[in-house]
Specification:
- The protein is α/β, with parallel strands linked by helices and 678 residues long.
- The chain contains 23 helices and 20 strands.
- Keywords: ATP-binding, Nucleotide-binding, Plant defense, Repeat.
- It holds the Pfam family WHD_DRP.
Length: 678
């Protein structure tokens, strides 16, 4: 325990140092691998205990008899003790290695530590010609500022958007507008990126309005001076890059700002939707990316000398239009890529930039990623792994919220401090946090049930950047598969791919995720070879999530039962008629998806052995004839989309469960279709 605490104490500093220090980065990778292995070891132990409990029917007498009549438990115990000792020594070695890097101790827990390294301080001035494509946005904000027909003396307006979108530039553009300058007696600009400290903010406002910053004053005389300064004056205050999510903190500041004359306005720029919700009394203004034409105008301005942008080679223009597609209308990306292109005059040089990922261009990685990563740095630790995991989905992929939550849970990312809080509820809160922070964009709602979301391309680049080798979106020839990767995703399906690249894939034998992230639901090629499936299953023994949907499989290998850590299994849209009985060995399984398996005749006989099963999706399994006996013992079940009542007389088969199976399933929620009731 002391070793773990010693490592935790320096972990934050190590994470910050790894950007510059490759040795620290290597140390962190070793630590990460050790943590994964320790987790697998603990899972192996708890799974063994749970399997014994399920196998014995939880009968103490039987347990004792088995223990004394068999040497297996003793052998297992000795083997586990040996592995635990080796693991402890491994952590001790890692802890000792930390000393050579002179890592600093963190004085407070990681999850509560505030990151104070932020962006540079901003100011209020920007030349009009520097801002391109924001005329309509400027006018919309100016109209809000000059609307004095409002209830409160002081109104609050938020400008919201991801990093690099130009929120600060827009606020500067508005701040310097002639009408705005003429209509406000006091005009104050403040950058509050790092720490939202009310005393500091009050001192800065007073200093900005009086020309002298108060010194050594307590909070009471400070607030008196602030209220005198603002009293009965129509003022405009811009608070740039606000990240404070504490509503009480904000209310304490707001009280001190309410003494201005009617028509006073406070403009807040923020990346975080929840900040806008907390602060705004007028509806928030959500800033969008530049249009294609606006993006091209900005790129030309940055990539060519003044006057040259009017005589551009048509081939260069065509390449340039493709380049701006990658920038997704984000001015920071366009400006940075324009600066790179300024020194590149040939078509080949422009084509190179077009065909290179943004994160692989040094100048772009060094300028855009740090800006985007500022938001990531402020994440609580539990959100960092959830966000990085999203890099498994390709760009423009419609991410199903429920599926993502189930995958997060399968990986152990969701931690609840209180037993009464369901992990699904906590996971939903994690998701909403990322949505509020503009890391997801709502794209589609499926009949009000399943909400689907996308990630902005640059946000996806950030997820890929922070996940590094851990999460791998496999390319078409599997060349990017790393031996130490832990999560694999396949954005395509080619019938020969797995056979041809099997030797490469199996090198990553510690993976925990194997998913098919392809927007097409069913693949129109032949079935995957059973021998290939067997090889994958036997190699990937540490899988927590396995997705084999839509592969036209006719049967699932019996070896599926060896995946003791498996918590998520998707077999949807396959041609399976009978499931192997070995599935019931998967005592950790929480999610089993079989929807649209139209040839499936029956579920497993001993289904009650899946003691942790929470979600059983059998929607569209139109060939099912009955439900198995024992289904009602799965008291953790939350999702059951279909219940088929047997047409045979009650009691005609000992394997056939009737409606009585539903009696104890008190946690069921959502849709349940019952067939053959009549």
């Amino acid at each position: 325990m002391n070793t773990v605490l010693a490592i935790q104490a320096v972990l934050q500093d190590a994470e910050e140092q790894q950007v510059e220090n490759h040795q620290v980065k290597h140390w962190l990778m070793n630590l990460r691998d050790a943590i994964y292995d320790a987790d697998d070891l603990l899972s192996e132990f708890t799974t063994h205990v749970l399997q014994q409990k399920v196998m014995d029917g939880d009968k103490i007498v039987k347990k004792v008899r088995i223990f004394f009549s068999s040497s297996k438990p003793l052998v297992f115990g000795l083997e586990m003790a040996r592995k635990l000792k080796a693991m402890r020594e491994r952590f001790n070695d890692i802890s000792n290695d930390r000393d050579q890097f002179q890592l600093k101790l963190v004085g407070c827990p990681l999850k509560t530590r505030v990151v104070t390294r932020g962006r540079d301080q901003t100011h209020s001035f920007v030349p009009d010609e520097e801002v391109i494509g924001r005329e309509k946005d400027k006018q919309a904000i100016v109209d809000l500022l000059l609307d004095f027909d409002v209830e409160d003396n002081v109104s609050f307006i938020s400008i919201v958007g991801i990093g690099g979108l130009g929120k600060t530039a827009l606020a500067q553009y508005v701040f310097n507008d002639e009408k705005v300058q003429a209509n406000f007696e006091l005009k104050i600009w403040m950058c509050v990126s790092d720490v939202f400290d009310i005393k500091t903010i009050v001192e800065m406002i007073i200093g900005s309005t009086t020309g002298r910053k108060p010194k050594n004053l307590d909070m009471d005389p400070l607030q008196n001076e602030l209220r005198r300064t603002l009293s009965q004056k129509k003022y405009l205050l811009v608070l740039d890059d606000v990240r404070n999510e504490d509503s009480e903190n904000w209310c304490n500041l707001k009280r001190l700002l309410m003494g201005g004359a009617k028509g006073s306005k406070v403009v807040i720029t923020t990346r975080i939707n929840i900040v806008a919700e907390i602060t705004s009394t007028i509806s928030s203004y959500f800033l969008k990316g530049l249009s294609r034409d606006q993006s091209w105008s900005l790129l030309k301005k940055m990539a060519f000398k003044k006057g040259q942008e009017t005589v551009i080679n048509s081939n260069l223009e065509a390449i340039g239009m493709d380049i701006i597609e990658k920038c997704q209308g984000v001015p920071l990306a366009i400006r940075t890529i324009g600066k790179v292109l300024f020194f590149k005059k040939t078509e080949d040089e422009w084509l190179y930039i077009k065909n290179t990922k943004l994160t692989d261009v040094t100048q772009l990685k060094d300028s855009i990623m740090p800006v985007l990563k500022l938001s990531y740095n402020y994440f609580p630790s539990h959100l960092k792994c959830c966000f990085a995991y999203c890099s498994l989905f390709p760009k423009d992929y419609l991410i199903d919220k429920l599926t993502l939550i189930q995958l997060w849970i399968s990986q152990g990312f969701i931690q609840s401090s209180e037993e009464s809080h369901e992990v699904e509820h906590v996971a939903n809160e994690y998701f909403m946090e990322l949505l509020w922070r503009s890391f997801f964009q709502e794209a589609k709602e499926d009949g009000g049930m399943n909400r689907r979301f996308k990630m902005h391309d640059l946000i996806h680049d950030l997820a890929h950047y922070v996940s590094e080798t851990d999460c791998i979106l496999v390319d078409s020839n599997a060349k990017n598969v790393k031996e130490k990767g832990h999560h694999l995703s396949f954005p395509f399906y080619n019938i020969s791919f797995f056979e041809e690249n099997l030797s490469t894939l199996v090198k990553a034998n510690k993976i925990r995720t194997f998913i098919l992230a392809y927007n097409k639901w069913k693949y129109d090629q032949g079935p995957i070879e059973e021998s290939t499936l067997k090889k994958l299953i036997s190699t990937f023994r540490y899988l927590h999530a396995l997705d084999l949907h839509g592969l036209n499989m006719r049967m699932l290998p019996n070896t599926i039962g060896t995946l003791m850590h498996l918590k998520y299994l998707d077999l949807s849209s396959n041609d399976i008629e009978v499931l192997p009985s070995s599935i019931t060995k998967l005592v950790n399984l929480q999610t089993l998806k079989l929807c649209q398996c139209k040839k499936l005749r029956e579920l497993m006989v001993d289904i009650q052995k899946l003691v942790n099963l929470k979600h059983l999706d059998i929607d569209g399994c139109e060939n099912l004839t009955h439900m198995p006996c024992g289904l009602g013992q799965l008291t953790s079940l939350q999702t059951l989309t279909l219940f088929v009542v047997s047409k045979d007389p009650v009691g005609s088969s000992k394997h056939c469960g009737g409606l009585v199976e539903l009696n104890k399933l008190n946690d069921l929620r959502g849709k349940l279709e019952i067939k053959n009731l009549a």
